[in-house]
Amino acid sequence: KKKINDGLEKTRTGFFAGIVNTLTNSQIDDDLYNDLEEQLILADVGPDCAIRLVDELRDKVREEHLKTGEQALKALRELIRLEMSPTDDLDLSGKPAVILVIGVNGVGKTTTIAKLAYLYKDLGKKVMLAAGDTFRAAASEQLELWAERAEVPLVKAGEGADPAAVIFDAVKSAAAKGYDMVIADTAGRLHNKKGLMDELSKITRSVKKASPEASLEVLLVLDAITGQNAISQAQEFCRAAGATGVVLTKLDGTPKGGCVIGVRQKLGLPIRFVGVGEKIDDLLFFSATDFSEALLP
Ligand code: GDP
Q: What's the pTM value of the predicted model, to 2 decimals?
């Protein structure tokens, strides 16, 4: 099974190797801080966040009287860990625990739903899927194949059916049959914010109607390869959709894994999972400690 180290290989051997190299081979001075800022921006951390991290590092070096590059590296690793630390756990307390998955086409939404089902099933949970993306017939078909592979039941309806009705049926059935979780696909479309808000609030209401005991998380799936470019679009999207967390896919496919930090900072949402490959077990729980240690070993 892959680890975060494998997923971050391109990033670690790319931009972050440069950062380690800069830190361990230079004197701590203004040039170093400028270099570092530039490299963090190249690694897709995002300008605001890069500037702030470097400012915080500068303060830390001064306050703690750090002398060597090794010490500064350790300090930066700790700052990144703090930056990425979530404030609480994913809420899976409901009966069932419902996870709505949103994101634009091609980011890896379907694959992520299958991976989530597999991950939680492996942890002993009874998981049901709901094909709430009724906008594209292909989406339900894809999800059906994945549900078979993950060996979990799928609730679906025909093309054009009401997503809220599909998700209502799934939650109702899960509650009646004692399933722990429902992971639901949605047809969250970015180009119409009002439509998206209406649709998601309708879905939320139908979840509560199907089971008043249900808990709800809304995970936004983003593609790490598009990185910073996707963020401004996502900002509006995730606010409208009431997202509670982020899944970053395709971390294995980019040397710009610094975007994980930028996304956390820009969206103000915890990163919950990262995708590190195309296989069903290539989804990892996000850990700020593992991430910062893999990034700056
Ligand atoms: P959707 O349109 O958002 O539902 O996207 P899909 O789930 O169909 O995925 C689109 C493509 O991205 C597929 O070829 C997936 O195999 C690929 N993909 C998804 N997640 C990952 C990942 O974490 N790593 C890699 N390398 N590929 C991924």
A: 0.95
